[in-house]
Amino acid sequence: MADTLRTLVSLPLFPLGAVLYPDGRLSLRVFEVRYLDMVRKCHALGAPFGVVALTSGTEVRQAGAAPETLAPVGTLCHVESLVSPQPGLLTIQCSGSERFRTTQCERRINGLWIADVHLLPEAPAAPLPDDLQPCADALERLLTQLAARAPDTPGPVAPPWRLDDCGWVANRWCELLPFPLTQKQLLLELDNPMIRLELVWDYLQQSGIGA
Asked: What is the tally of helices (H) and strands (E) in the chain?
């Protein structure tokens, strides 16, 4: 770690066909050799790995598949629980924290991606302006409905619900809405959470969800 606050060196990456947002929840079944040891080490050390979206290639290596290429911005991922239901399989529950941008990236001989990254600044928690309050209200209604349908299972969004924070509300909508992967990635890369929320609200109004 060259700069203990803003830079991470040799961060292991987990490329996915999905985007992880700060404070997001992620469940993974890990069975590829290149990730099994990495995940165990991160869990034992309490260290994060990086989740990045695949811009080409597949999550599981396949003969004849397109080469893996990775989005430049991802999110630190922390293992909260790890279970091994059978040899060669891990089931993990993770959470996202800070965004990062890769500055140098390489794939090792075992297929594991390693990167040097700069952590990206995130705007401090900001209250919702009045014109965006309906966006938070719609999210609260949706989360309440989802929780009521399956009261004995964890919902898609971990508590506490920070419905008064622009960035948190925007990130949860980005996870829940059926945006294409490229659009989810562009929203992740936006540094201003207010703009992210405004774009989400435009979509909700156009689709009738926010009515």
From this structure: 5, 7
DSSP lists the bridge partners of residue 14 as 51
CATH fold of 7-119 reads 2.30.130
H or E stretch covering 92: strand 89-107
Q: Is the pLDDT of residue 4 over 60?
A: no
**For residue 82, which of 138, 128, 35 has the smallest C-alpha distance?**
35
Q: What is the pTM of this model?
A: 0.90
DSSP for 174-196? HHHS---HHHHHHHHH-S-HHHH
Nearest to 129 by CA among 174, 200, 194: 194
Q: Where are the domains of the chain?
A: 7-119, 130-207
Give 187: exposed, middle or buried? Use CB within 10 Å, 0-12, 13-18, 19+: buried
Residue 56: alpha-carbon gap to chain centroid: 18
Instruction: List the beta bridge partners of residue 106.
Output: 114
Task: For the domain made up of 130-207, give the CATH fold.
Answer: LON domain-like fold (1.10.4060)
Q: What is the pLDDT of residues 93-152, one digit of tens each?
A: 999 999 999 999 999 998 899 999 999 987 777 889 999 999 999 999 999 998 888 777
